[in-house]
Amino acid sequence: MRSSRLRDRNKEVYIKGQNLLILTAIRIELLSNFIQSLIHPFSFENRTYEMSDPIAQFFAPYSSSFAFHPQRDWRQIGAFNALAKHLKWSQAERTFMYQEFKDTWAEAVEGEFAEDTLQHYQGLCEELGIEDIPDGINQCKNKLWRVYVNIVDLMQYRKDKRAGRSPPPLTLFETADALAQYTSSEKKWCPVEIAKAEMLRVLLHELH
């Protein structure tokens, strides 16, 4: 019995050691790539992209060996998959780095809704097709609170507009349940707990 417990403990120590080695290797690789990016200026090969965007910054340390080609999808999942393939990450490395990558989405969403003046609230109301746009922030909030829209889609819509594209109209849902069903089927989640920006908190709903 004691021998069995000892084997289990040794196995647990081994697994923790392996995870620590993977994490250390990733950090060394990131540091090396970051140093290289200082030597070789970061380039998007004549593509325009917001350099302050945390998603763009995620790819910056790899610029000496990997060309980041921004895609229309603001989350840049395709670019992440290309990077993982280029660097030949193991499944464990890929899983770890994907979580790090998703954290940049939260930063991007927060930045998108950081401004909270009356003009910004009114602009959001217009984007969401709200009629009789109010003249006060609280009145705008009251109307926005009753709107059910997917935040991932809203982010895409706003970025497309800024890029001079003509995005399709946003899909507005009648209920939180309908929004939840769509969000789940399309895997377009935006966790409520990340919301710090006031305007973002108005839009987010608990989905089950």
Explain what the structure shows.
Helix content is 60%, strand content 2%. By secondary structure, it is mostly helical. It folds into two domains: 2-110, no CATH class; 114-203, no CATH class. Strands 1-2 form a two-stranded antiparallel sheet. The longest helix has 38 residues, at 2-39. Residues 30-49 have low confidence and may be disordered.
Give a short account of the largest sheet.
Answer: 2 strands, antiparallel
- Strand tally: 2
Shape: elongated
How would you spell out the order of helices and strands? HHHHHHEHEHH
| Helical proportion, percent range | 55-70%
Number of helices: 9
Uncertain ranges: 30-49
Residue share in β-strands: under 5%
Q: Would you tell me the overall average pLDDT?
A: 81
Strand order of the largest sheet: 1-2
Alpha-carbon distance between the two ends:
44 Å
Radius of gyration: 21 Å
**Domain count:** 2
Kindly name the structural category: mainly alpha
Q: Layout of helices and strands, plus pairs?
A:
Layout: H1 2-39, H2 54-59, H3 77-87, H4 91-112, H5 118-127, H6 137-145, E1 148-149, H7 151-162, E2 172-173, H8 176-186, H9 198-203
Antiparallel strand pairs: 1-2
Helix pairs in contact: 5-6
What's this entry about, in short?
The chain is mostly helical and 208 residues long. The protein folds into two domains: 2-110, no CATH class; 114-203, no CATH class.
Can you tag this structure with a few keywords?
208 residues, mainly alpha, 2 domains, 9 helices, 2 strands, 2% strand
